User: Which sequence fits this backbone?
């Protein structure tokens, strides 16, 4: 059981906003507009933000002086004054996204424009804290060695994503009790910060994948989105009105922990019914060799009967989880993504849709169910993007204090 916090939940909202806070909020509003509408002009920024033209011009000059934005070619031949388009400077900032997953570790370096610079990936039977942090640190140093010193100085830090609770699920992967105990007592963010001497922002892996999904959706983006990521187990997260739903401890969107009923009517966790671990067990029971390595390279055709059965079971469970999530959070869009070949992912979305249509309509609406766009590296991408968002774009500029989180 967690200790109760010392600070009252209402204490932060009674504090006023300083003049510097207002200035920073305006700056981030302008930077967010440029990120969301590449090529937007000074006049458009002033109109959309509600800031005066002189204020907008001053903020643009400051952002340009700090190499966060760059000017495009002046657009002539239109009514009024020639317009100067502004874009994010891809070299203006960088972040690392680290996913310590159930069966693999991925380290990603990306720039402020969301473009990947480099990536490494290691597979394992289960994550061992005695070795995994040193491996991550080595991969980070390899990726950063290719950055010029000028760019390395613009590194925001590490967005670290892991399951919210390694706990009992590690036993399903054959991890010994001592490894499970080590993870239970470990402060993961501070440990990686100590290993790398970089500030670390921790985020639940399902929440990181959800953040990736909302950022890659084309505008206008919906007010509420839920994301399911099918991997070794099932990650999930919710973004509501532009904010990640994390709860006071970071695990509020753990959709994989939703209880569903399997095809026999017995209650079970989504983790154990719609996951690749569940497929793995079915394959072994049917006499197939346990699939190994990257799931995108498995012999899916070779175990087609088992795959079809798993897809039906997973779709049945995911449909229940979609309705439960919608009832709690009022989402408009639900995405399903995973560490899967595109053909298998499409079939999973299709069978989930079919099961969803069989449930009676009791909710005010049903969300639009779609295939996720974030790709198999959604978790590491999302963690890196969330760090950059909180450093440069979020109006809640106190969400990431590198000294505190480090």
Assistant:
């Amino acid at each position: 059981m967690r200790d109760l916090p010392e600070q009252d939940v209402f204490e932060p909202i009674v504090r006023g906003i300083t003049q510097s806070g207002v200035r920073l909020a305006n700056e981030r509003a302008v930077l967010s507009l440029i990120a969301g509408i590449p090529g937007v002009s000074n006049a458009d920024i002033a109109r959309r933000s509600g800031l005066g033209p002189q204020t907008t011009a001053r903020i643009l000059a400051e952002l340009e002086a700090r190499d966060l934005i760059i000017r495009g070619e002046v657009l002539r031949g239109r009514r009024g004054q020639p317009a100067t388009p502004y874009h994010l400077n891809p070299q203006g900032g960088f972040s690392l996204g680290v996913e310590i997953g159930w069966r693999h570790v991925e380290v990603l370096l990306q720039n402020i424009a969301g473009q990947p610079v480099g990536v490494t990936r290691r597979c394992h039977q289960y994550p061992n804290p005695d070795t995994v942090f040193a491996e991550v640190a080595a991969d980070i140093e390899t990726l950063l060695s290719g950055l010029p010193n000028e760019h390395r100085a613009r590194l925001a830090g590490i967005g670290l994503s892991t399951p919210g609770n390694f706990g009992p699920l590690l036993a399903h992967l054959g991890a010994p009790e001592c490894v499970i105990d080590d993870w239970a007592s470990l402060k993961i963010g501070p440990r990686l910060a100590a290993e790398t001497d970089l500030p670390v922002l921790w985020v639940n892996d399902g929440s990181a994948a959800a953040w990736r999904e909302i950022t890659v959706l084309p505008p206008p983006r919906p007010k509420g989105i839920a994301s399911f990521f099918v991997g070794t187990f099932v990650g999930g997260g919710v973004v509501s009105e532009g904010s990640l739903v994390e709860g006071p401890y970071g695990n509020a969107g753990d959709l994989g922990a939703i209880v569903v009923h399997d095809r026999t009517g017995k209650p079970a966790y989504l983790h154990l019914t719609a996951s690749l671990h569940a497929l793995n067990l079915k394959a072994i029971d049917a006499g197939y060799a346990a699939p190994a390595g990257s799931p995108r390279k498995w012999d899916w055709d070779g175990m087609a009967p088992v795959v079809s059965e798993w897809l039906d079971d997973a779709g049945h469970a995911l449909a229940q989880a979609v309705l439960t999530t919608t009832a709690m959070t009022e989402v408009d869009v639900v995405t399903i993504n995973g560490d899967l070949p595109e053909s298998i992912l499409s079939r999973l979305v299709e069978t989930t849709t079919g099961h969803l249509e069989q449930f009676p309509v009791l909710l005010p609406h049903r969300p639009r169910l779609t295939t996720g766009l974030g790709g198999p590296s959604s978790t590491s991408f999302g963690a890196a993007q969330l760090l950059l968002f909180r450093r440069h774009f979020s109006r809640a500029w106190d969400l990431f204090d590198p000294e505190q989180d480090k």
Summary: Confidence is low (pLDDT under 50) at residues 397-406. The radius of gyration is 23 Å.
